[in-house]
Amino acid sequence: MNNYEKFKHLLEYFTVHLEYCQNRNNKTPGFDVYIRPLIEADNFIYTGVGYKGEAIQQRIAAWSSYCGTEININVGTSPLRNGTVTYTSRRCYLNWQGTWVNVRPEWEEHNQHKHLTALYLTTAAFAQAPAIERATIEELGLFTPGQPNQRLCAFFDKYYELYRSYMENHADLFDLEQLLLANHNLVLTGAPGTGKTWLAGKLARCLCDSDAAVKDTDKPQSLRYERVQFHPSYDYTDFVEGLRPVRTAEGNIGFELKEGIFKKFCRRAAEYQLQHPEAEDKFVFIIDEINRGEASRIFGELFFALDPDYRGPVGRVQTQYSNLHEESADDVFAQGMYVPDNVYIIGTMNDIDRSVESLDFAFRRRFAWCEILAEERLGLVERALASHPDWEGYEPEERDGFCRDLAHRLSSLNALIASKPELGTAWQVGPAYLLKAQLYWDSADYQEQVPEKLWQYHLQPLLREYLRGRADAGELLEDFRQAFLDPEPEAGQEP
Q1: In 3D, which of 366, 368, 380, 364 has the Cα closest to residue 199?
Q2: Range of 447's domain?
Q3: Which of 8, 131, 206, 409 is in Cβ range 3.0-4.6 Å of 120 for a Cys bridge?
Q4: Residue 490 lies in a domain
């Protein structure tokens, strides 16, 4: 069975499953083939999330594997005011595993019943995700004998193209996403300039069910995505709650109990979870430079509630200002604050900063830690440089050659840094420093001026700070300069 044939079976099962669940009509096309045998065997499952390994995925096991990965079936219900449920919500879709590439159903109302009439492709998770391509059930030739028609083959080709494109653009995120989902708390560490903050923002946008996940912008457009940066003067009152100065109506200065940014965020997540008990939407909180603040003073008793095993009401804690809270039956934190299990925390830090020592083991134990290596990030920066508008009108070979040259120079420098005692990979230079090339390139002399300016104004000051206090600092700095400005030729290239 080729991919087109498997895809036809997959779409037929998905369509008849939803149509039957919505209308309980055993005359639905495909019912006798796909649904009746399961019902007669008392083995029909109405809802489930395939990517969580639930039993509903077994219904499509024969057709779900494609090119080394899987397409999952996800069927969820949305409650109506009269106590019934509907299967027409956005929680029903086919999902290419590890991506936001979905096949979603389109419904039409007829004689007071909703019927599934078309399928469309999206690459976004939010409710009003735009259709990239759409086809009716008739156009796709579902429930008709014979081989898949041309329209269905083209629909699958587009679906696979979107999948390949997504994986190419998000390959750096897939492992991080799985790590964060498994642990709830993740810290990205690594050398300066490896793009940890950018990665954290991109990961948050991919997980958040919002416009921000689609527009690929660092601006937090969604209430499910928040960012804060720690610094030495940041404390518990900024983060959780505390007495803050306020101006009274008479113009005097007084103090009032105010919630900090993290407690406000957790309240939004907890209230959303209570209002939408079946929702799987995630809330992502980014803490940039997490090591620059004193974690014990900032988190206080929330260390306990951060633990994934104590997420939700089971992990309620009484905060330091609990005696000042006004009692309210509507307050989700009336019995104590907790960190909801739909909240995911991403921290970033340079692990060579001296402030790293302030992170105690109780804090470290509650996070997964992932090092972002400089060498692994070179390709992304090469693409960023190559796409810069200043290259318009230049031959692709010239543009790509210059970008590869800069990447090679940085690789040469980093290899030397990693080989030196008391340094190593944590002290390498991240490829974000190469983006500074955009400030200096001149169409007349790319090769002559840009590397020299990068070294003089950006790399040399950083490396000098690395070597501060070492007796061999001058000698090492000259070696590093040679490695960047006059590197050995790449293998297979002429000197």
Answers
A1: 380
A2: 376-485
A3: 131
A4: no
